Amino acid sequence: xxxxxxxxxxxxxxxxxxxxxxxxxxxxxxxxxxxxxxxxxxxxxxxxxxxxxxxxxxxxxxxxxxxxxxxxxxxxxxxxxxxxxxxxxxxxxxxxxxxxxxxxxxxxxxxxxxxxxxxxxxxxxxxxxxxxxxxxxxxxxxxxxxxxxxxxxxxxxxxxxxxxxxxxxxxxxxxxxxxxxxx
Length: 183
What we know:
Low-confidence stretches: none
CATH superfamily: BB2672
Number of strands: 7
Radius of gyration: 16 Å
């Protein structure tokens, strides 16, 4: 498969103390890591692309390690999600190549997670943004952890690039009180 060419990485961590109500005893930490890589399939239709998922695995593991560390360790992670923005010379299917490398990397590092990793993907131009869905790591129906985080970079994805994202949280939404299953 083609060589993976990384242009840049970005890590963002939010610390949320309240959402208009009382200040939380423990702030929610919500973080994202994004990587911008060259899309090896940009500008043409390539029928055999699955092998690139194997090439993405080391990047997925590195990104997951960095994000887990930024959020305080694997034992702190309660929610996760992933996403991909594909530049205009690519196709939506190129974003689907991130499903296994991104999802399995997070699940491997936080250990014991049972829920599928939610995802979003789209084709977009430079500066496009993507709302990455977040659910609980062990039970996708835990309503308190339904969340999302917007990701993107001001100079990506260029037409021949992919922006790949992992998102994690350390707990439920601040002031969650909508009922449903609890963690």
